[in-house]
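Discussion board: Methods & Data

I've been asked by a reviewer to show the raw model output for two of the constructs in my manuscript, not just the figures. I'm not sure how much to include, so I'm pasting the format here to get opinions. Each protein appears as its amino acid sequence followed by a line of discrete structure tokens. Is this the kind of thing reviewers expect to see in a supplement, or should I convert it first? Here is construct A:
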Amino acid sequence: MKCKCVIISAPSGAGKTTIVKQLLGKGLDLEFSVSATNRKPRGSESHGKEYYFISAVDFKKRIKNGEFVEWQEVYTENFYGTLKMEIERIWSHKKHPIFDVDAKGGINLKRIFGPLSISIFIMPPSIRELEKRLLSRGTDNPEKVQIRLNKAMEEMRLADQFDYIILNDSLEEATEEACSIVSSFLRK
């Protein structure tokens, strides 16, 4: 089996994590690529499951040592990245990594993995709907929601750099479309 990569990107609140979870349950030999971050865990998040939670000092040391495939400073002093060891771990299991990353991370991963990867951008139906979704989560104050919306507008301008754009105005339909695209790519 030739190992490939599936890259799913979207603004926060657009549904990418839900779609990734659905894809993982479809029997496609996918394994979730756990990103590293220096932010604090939210809610029930745990180290090694949703993220590798590391200190800012350790994150910067790993950058300097070349341990990341890609990394971004997503918000000021808030880093996210994909560790090389994570990709190697997944490929050693003969699985395809599936990434749940921001748009810039997705573009970088596509550039790095080229034809061995497929990139999908999950587009929210509108900024207004995205704001409603973010507010309904109840995890961020209004100021943080506004920061996320500003970033979302930046990310949406990058959508045309992805192989596919899926409009998520129906989670069921968006998941079906993503599954069809990913299944076809992995069969090639």
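Construct B, same format:
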Amino acid sequence: MGINECDDGNLIDGDGCSSTCTIEPDFECHIQANGTDICRLRGNFIAQLKVNDDNKLKVVFNREVNISSNSP
């Protein structure tokens, strides 16, 4: 057991708090009442939603985004 920069309760990289419990670049983390951290991107983060001609939803971000699922 050591001192962690953050602990968001999972081992997923790319969500602001890495699997080694360090704050990832461009994120800031704040502790919640339950003791876990919540991390959010710093600065201007913009997502645009567009509907293509074939009626498919397209999401465009102004910077790289990692999307993961805890589902099997």
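Answer (T.O., handling editor elsewhere):
This is acceptable in a supplement if you add a one-line summary per construct. For B, something like: The mean pLDDT is 84.
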